[in-house]
């Protein structure tokens, strides 16, 4: 069973001129295959830092603790090895890659992750069908990656990648932000389609409960001040909608 285990994770970021700053201060989290976890929390609590640390962003240094995937030391792996091991990050702000078409990007990514090129005819069919599922115009396949895409189109493209790459662990960093109602419905359907295979563990980072009406997590974790300060089931998300994060901000800052 695929399991991502994070133990006592401390992460620092290199600041401009002020040396390293500790952002994560002892995060513990276990995500198993088939499970959906939501990480919620106020601005600046460390949610994106957690996602970057798992994916291997070079600006973030793990100073203490461990991350393992099926027992293998993720921290000893480079970014590309992590992706091949089955870790996928849908970024909060997807970057443009001008001059690289979506179709080339997707096929190259799939070849790298699978270790061999997908059979062309089957691959083309799969990409077409998945784009259809996500209600994306097929013309996107020939456009530069994220080049001139709207915010919502970028997020659909992230989910398209996830559906095609079929990761063991999918980290979705604010995939819901900036989506209109229709895009939210379609993106959520994509997340649920992957989830229903039972093969992927999902870490859904969000501020809002809006997406959790479509994608119901079994586990909700609240992050504040670089730590997980509360945990529960989907009922916790409903409580947060009512109460906000105020009480957690104090807990996160205090300890
Ligand atoms: N390069 C950096 N230099 C200085 N501070 C940084 C840097 N990168 C991140 N931080 C700080 O780390 C904290 C956590 O940021 P992070 O992006 O992980 O929070 P977040 O919970 O994802 O926030 P949001 O919900 O607003 O996206 C913030 O206070 C942020 O300013």
TrEMBL record:
Keywords: ATP-binding, Nucleotide-binding
ABC transporter domain residues: 4-250
SMART domains (UniProt xref): AAA
Listed PROSITE patterns: ABC_TRANSPORTER_2
Pfam family, one: ABC_tran
SUPFAM superfamilies (UniProt xref): P-loop containing nucleoside triphosphate hydrolases
GO molecular function, one term: ATP binding
InterPro entries, per the entry: AAA+_ATPase (IPR003593), ABC_transporter-like_ATP-bd (IPR003439), FeS-cluster_ATPase_SufC (IPR010230), P-loop_NTPase (IPR027417)
Family membership: Belongs to the ABC transporter superfamily. Ycf16 family.
The protein's name: Fe-S cluster assembly ATPase SufC
Organism of provenance: Frankia nepalensis
